[in-house]
Design brief:
With about 200 residues, the chain is α/β, with parallel strands linked by helices. Helix content is about 50%, strand content about 15%.
């Protein structure tokens, strides 16, 4: 097994907490409405279309046209998006700091994130500038878990899959990386990540 010389981080809910429930937890007057909103209107698949490069304005206007009775909660999805971005996951950022300070690894970001919204995160969080490079879905017009998105990072930064370690909170995205022979860790907490990195003799 080749030695690891490259670490690839997902960002959302690995280094930065993001959750629509910060806006919608008490938004509706029933659990049924909340469930309907996320299952049928502002769905995960819909959000991922914007991650892959679709305009948030176009996406919002289309849904408002389809579901006018839900107009305000639809508009608030991106209108109040910064409230969903809770802040750094401090334990993970500290792990990132340790890896960076060791000087042993190239460290990259591979993230599903709408391009304009990612700019907000770049302004807010200095640690996003510590990476040796990053590949952002909204800029590339492709996203995880599609293999060409992972390949884009490997090719751009001359990374060998067998020498990389990928960290992501999505089992789907981890499985896609492993199918490309990229060793992976399914992130659950900073403590769990630190233990797994220690087991690999990385930290």
């Amino acid at each position: 097994m080749a030695a690891i010389n490259t670490i690839i981080f997902d960002l959302g809910n690995v280094l930065i907490e993001w959750n629509p429930m910060h806006v919608y937890k008490d938004y509706f007057d029933s659990e049924e409405k909340l469930k309907h909103f996320f299952d049928k209107i502002c769905t995960a698949d819909w959000n991922e279309e914007q991650d892959a490069g679709r305009s948030i304005v176009e996406a919002t206007q289309e849904l408002v046209g389809k579901y006018p009775e839900w107009e305000q909660p639809i508009r608030d999805y991106y209108g109040r998006w910064t409230e969903m971005l809770k802040g750094p996951i401090l334990g993970s950022v500290e792990i990132f700091r340790e890896l960076k300070a060791s000087g042993k690894y190239k460290i990259y970001a591979l993230t599903n994130w709408q391009a304009g919204l990612f700019d907000i995160a770049l302004v807010r969080y200095n640690f996003l500038h510590w990476f040796d490079g990053r590949v952002v879905s909204g800029e590339e017009k492709m996203r995880k878990p599609f293999p060409e998105f992972y390949q884009r990072l490997l090719d751009r930064y001359n990374v060998k899959a067998s020498e990389a370690l990928f960290i992501d909170d999505s089992a789907r995205n981890v499985a896609a990386a492993e199918a490309m022979d990229i060793r992976s860790i399914l992130f659950q907490s900073p403590e769990q990540l630190k233990k797994e990195l220690s087991n690999l003799a990385i930290l």
